[in-house]
Specification:
Belongs to the class-I pyridoxal-phosphate-dependent aminotransferase family. Its cofactor is pyridoxal 5'-phosphate. One of its GO terms (cellular component) is cytoplasm. InterPro entries: Aminotransferase_I/II_large (IPR004839), Kynurenine-oxoglutarate_AT (IPR051326), PyrdxlP-dep_Trfase (IPR015424), PyrdxlP-dep_Trfase_major (IPR015421), PyrdxlP-dep_Trfase_small (IPR015422). One of its GO terms (molecular function) is kynurenine-oxoglutarate transaminase activity. The protein is an alpha/beta fold. It folds into two domains: about 5-30 and about 280-384, Aspartate Aminotransferase, domain 1 (Alpha-Beta Complex), CATH 3.90.1150; about 40-275, Type I PLP-dependent aspartate aminotransferase-like (Major domain) (Aspartate Aminotransferase, domain 2). It is built from 14 helices and 13 strands. It has helices spanning about 5, 10-25, 40-50, 65-75, 90-105, 120-125, 145-150, 175-185, 225-230, 245-255, 265-275, 280-300, 325-340, 365-384, and strands spanning about 25, 85-90, 110-115, 130-135, 155-160, 190-195, 220-225, 240, 305, 315, 340, 345, 355-360. The protein has a seven-stranded mixed sheet, with helices on both faces. A four-stranded antiparallel sheet has the order 9-10-13-12. It has a two-stranded parallel ribbon with strand order 1-11. Helix 4 packs parallel to helix 11 (about 265-275). The longest helix is centred in the last third of the chain and has 21 residues, at about 280-300. The termini are far apart.
Length: about 375
């Protein structure tokens, strides 16, 4: 039996969602919306299921979707991508896995900015790599180029960056991205750029793709997600985009992970990407309204809610909120005793985890937000 999996706990997202179901709690932990998907895309998926092929799609994805992904990024990021540079995967996590397995050899070191999505470290270790954490500091959660450079050794092979950033809701600015790019160029590193939240931008924010920076197109593997773009997380349709050589390498890893994803869902995602971008503005306005509703209500009852510029997550500083408990204790008791599921931020790091913060998903209907806030008010009373 593989020791990595023998010692691996259940994902914090699965743990808290199962606990929410067991205790009938409001689930603000796992990051999935309960509104916001375009009905027309569902209609195309349903029609394709009945009228088109239900057999294996090509491993690298349906041509129509690979072309749609390339066109989408050429339009948004002024890139010059060909469909040969796109590989469709079973969600962005599988894209990240394929990118890691294709580029990391045993003994290679990989930089993570923590708090970090909890899939990165196990995947790096499964590839035989060594995780090196670079901790971001609250409340700014900024990338410090000097600190990053200190973490580089002769064994460093890659940097994994998530922008916009889960769990903090940060959108890294161009200067931060340029600092990462400079280190990558100077040390001949691959950058695996998890950009699944690229369209979940609030307050008129502008996103910069890592591959669009000078000298980064040939050393960046971008991972994207239709589930995040269209609020259809259960579809698990993602992709990776890279130079022809890196895309081919990652596709070889992908073929022995899932091989392909459902063709009707690929057809529907291609339709959604090709329909244009008129849906982006209303989608962002809806999520911004949900963010403001939750943040305002939580602040009114004494919680210290950090600003969120992107994604659909809030970070709450427990100590600054007058909560006398660490994040794990708060989460474990709150779901049982107050009926609210949250995610502790300490699950997003191993070496120096932030222990005084929780993450909340605000991509919820008003009724869900209101019920969650009421439950969090009950939870606060447990620890004040």
């Amino acid at each position: 039996m593989h020791p990595l999996y023998q010692q691996m706990p259940t994902s914090i997202f699965e743990k808290m969602s199962l606990a929410a179901m067991e205790h009938g709690a409001v689930n603000l932990g796992q990051g999935f919306p309960d509104f916001g998907w375009p009905q027309a895309i569902l209609d195309v998926a349903a029609e394709a299921l009945l009228s088109q092929s239900n057999q294996y799609a090509p491993s690298r994805g349906l041509p129509v979707l690979r072309q749609a992904v390339a066109d989408h990024y050429n339009r948004h990021h002024s890139l010059v991508l060909l469909p040969e540079q796109v590989c469709i995967t079973a969600g962005a996590t599988e894209a990240i896995a394929a990118a890691i397995f294709a580029t990391i050899a045993p003994g290679d070191e990989v930089i993570l900015f923590t708090p970090a999505y909890d899939a990165y470290a196990p995947l790096i270790r499964r590839a035989g790599g060594v995780v090196r954490e670079v901790a971001l500091q609250s409340p700014a959660w900024r990338i410090d180029g000097a600190v990053l450079r200190e973490a580089i050794t002769g064994k460093t092979r890659a940097i994994v960056i998530n922008n916009p950033h889960n769990p903090t809701g940060r959108l890294f600015d161009r200067s931060e991205l340029e600092a990462v790019a400079a280190v990558a160029v100077d040390h001949d590193l691959i950058v695996i750029s998890d950009e699944v939240w690229e369209h979940l931008l609030l307050d008129g924010q502008q996103f910069t793709a890592m591959a669009s920076l000078p000298a980064m197109a040939d050393r960046t593997i971008k991972c994207g997600s239709a589930g995040k773009i269209f609020s259809l997380t259960g579809w698990k349709v993602g992709w990776l985009v890279a130079s022809p050589a890196l895309a081919t390498l990652a596709a070889r890893a992908h073929q022995f992970l899932t091989f392909s994803s459902p063709p009707n869902l690929q057809e529907a995602v291609a339709f959604g990407l090709n329909e244009g971008d008129d849906w982006l503005g209303p989608m962002r306005q809806s999520f911004a309204a949900a963010r403001d509703r939750m943040a305002g209500a939580l602040r009114a009852i004494g919680y210290c809610v950090q600003d969120s510029a992107a994604t659909y997550f809030h970070c709450v500083d427990l100590e600054a909120s007058g909560i006398r408990a660490d994040d794990r204790t708060f989460a474990d008791r709150a779901v049982v005793e107050a009926g609210i599921a949250v995610v502790p931020l300490s699950a997003f790091a191993e070496i120096d985890p932030p222990r005084g913060f929780i993450r909340l998903c605000f991509a919820k209907r008003d009724s869900t937000i209101d019920a969650g806030v009421a439950a969090l008010e009950r939870a606060a009373r447990l620890f004040r």
